[in-house]
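2024-03-11 09:14:02 DEBUG pipeline.ingest accepted 1 chain
2024-03-11 09:14:02 DEBUG pipeline.ingest length=325
2024-03-11 09:14:03 DEBUG pipeline.predict start
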Amino acid sequence: MPEEEGRDDPLGRRLLLGGDGLRARRGGGELDNDTGSILYAACFVEEAQEELFSRGGRAFWCCPSLGEGVHMADLDGKTAVISGAGGGMGQVACEQFCEDGARVIGVDINAATGTALQDRLTAAGHDFAFFQGSVFDQGDIDALVAVVTEKFGHLDVLYNNAGVVLGKPMLETTEEEWDLVHNVALKGTFLMTKALVPLMGPGGSIINISSTGGLVGFEFMSAYCAAKGGVVLFTKSCAMDLAPDIRVNAICPGVIDTPMPRAFISELSEEEGNAVWSNFEQGHLLKRVGRPEEVVAMARMLASDEASFITGAALPVDGGWTAGK
């Protein structure tokens, strides 16, 4: 393919245009199409699309595996607060947002895991700070607002990721257990959003973690499903309240391989635990549980300007669990 024409896209990839295709490179990654059509990645900007069409070619969207070193989201310079930062998915979120160029404050009640995460990320050269606090304690949240104001001055992304799982029949669920699940998942999402939205401006993005249990019911999970269903409708209502300046979306993961579900089955016998894990896998159309990176990939996109026309959505990342329900 001729390589005499080329320029850089906003993510630092070299955009190479030729009569028989387009390649986008960053580091060692390469996309190539030699079919006579012009192929470009979904994260390319509109001006690239216009240029491709002006060359008389055909174009279509794709979102391929871009290879090591190529990020699908550009969060360079964006400021973000991520709650539940010490958990399995929270740690991955903090790591990948930092790798995408964001400046991040991770919030968690667990000082040990949060401090270890901070040490690891700052040692790697990332702009990351850990804040110990509860998402449903107003005093802690007020202190967080002060830290965000001092460190960033403004906030671009709020990622409400904190949550707890309770698997228990409704008739056996105590009021204290119900309150804990709702305080973390639903009340915490409300309090964090209300407190931090004043620091956000046009182009801001709020990402709330719900669950497939926020879309359909599950046996023995009435407290959890009620809280996560509340997160979905809170998300939709907030999207209406905060439009057009701030986008608000929810992600509804299926079963993700993190310490939380692993801890859930660890309380069972080995035989029972294996059976439950197999049921987790078989419940997804893809016949496996998800990886934290697969959920965070959606969050990275929603946090970026590539999602500028997405708001009020509850997006399943569930391997097809809810497809037929």
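2024-03-11 09:14:41 DEBUG pipeline.report The longest strand covers residues 200-209.
2024-03-11 09:14:41 DEBUG pipeline.predict end
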